[in-house]
Amino acid sequence: MTVFLVGFSVLAQADVTHPLPYSDPANEGAWIYNERVSDEFDGDTIDEDRWFIVGKFEDGRPQYIHPDNPNKKVWKGRAPSQFSGRNYRLEDGKLILETRWEPDFPFSEDVPKPHFGPSVPYENITTACFIGRREFKYGYVEIKSKAAPAEVASGFWSMGDGLEFDFYELVGHSNDPEKNDYLDSLLWWSIRDWKVKPYGKPTYTEKRDVGFNVADDFHIWGVEWSEDGIKYFIDGKLFSDVSAEDAHRWALENRSMPQVPEDYDGYVATVPIHLWIDNEIFPWVGIPTSKEELEAGSPPELRGDGVVDYEIEYVRVWQTHEQMKQSAITANP
Ligand SMILES: [Ca+2]
Ligand SMILES: [Ca+2]
Ligand SMILES: [Ca+2]
Fold first, then answer.
1. Which domain, by its residues, includes 322?
2. Is 263 inside a domain boundary?
3. The domain that contains 150 carries what CATH number?
4. Residue 10 above 50 pLDDT?
5. How many CB atoms lie within 10 A of CB 34?
6. Beta bridge partners of 95
7. For the CA of 184, the nearest ligand
8. Which ligand neighbours the alpha carbon of 314 most closely?
9. Cα 34 to ligand 1 centre (Å)
């Protein structure tokens, strides 16, 4: 009888058409692939019911209108780079986000005041941004990707109500030889609170060397996220294990000016999120000032066109039965 039940439960859970988390090939977590928010990027076109492509062109101008909330102010990118809806392609089952040296782009005249870093105009460089249109809360989020080998951040992150949850912001190359070895293998991930001053500062963050150059090859980044905390996996191996209590403690110890109240709960990753995949120039890291500088980290055969690639094989989200039920209750249609 026991044998029969074990066999039955394996059959019920195994699904030949859906992959399993790389760190859990036996599916001990009973993960169910969430088709609504995952994307294998194996088709010929982007499913725009799934993704908002920021800065799509209409009448020769990039448009910044959110399809689900036309009155919402849409961020145009981290200046000097601006999001362009032209900066992607689908190739060999991958989504390729392009950062381009494009001085002739019809850049916005706004000079944004960022929360962090200097105020600089939009100029010279365009990047891509995909925002998931459907939300979910808790689960196992995995991306197989290769960062751009350039002085531009390749990002995989998310936003929820008052929450920013950054899975990674990878800089594959720095034009400063003294910083390059540090930056090209640095994982920076954070939970940020946009509801409490100082807005957008981390309530938990880690900056750690992953031991390889993030732009050299594809790697699998997995984040198991629940109300109890976060387990971070790289290429199937546990890299970081942070309980909700750890995040709570970190916030109380590190959040000052103003100091957060004693009863502040730093584990703010407790609301539904929308996924973001994008490239951003981080002015505090460095700004490429020419086509040559943008492509300085590229292999010689890929230099000269003024384009660098951030490659994404897939984005997958799994949830437990209970998490899926909860997400379905709160999700947008
Ligand atoms: Ca794929
Ligand atoms: Ca390094
Ligand atoms: Ca190139």
1. 25-330
2. yes
3. 2.60.120.200
4. no
5. 21
6. 90, 312
7. 2
8. 1
9. 16
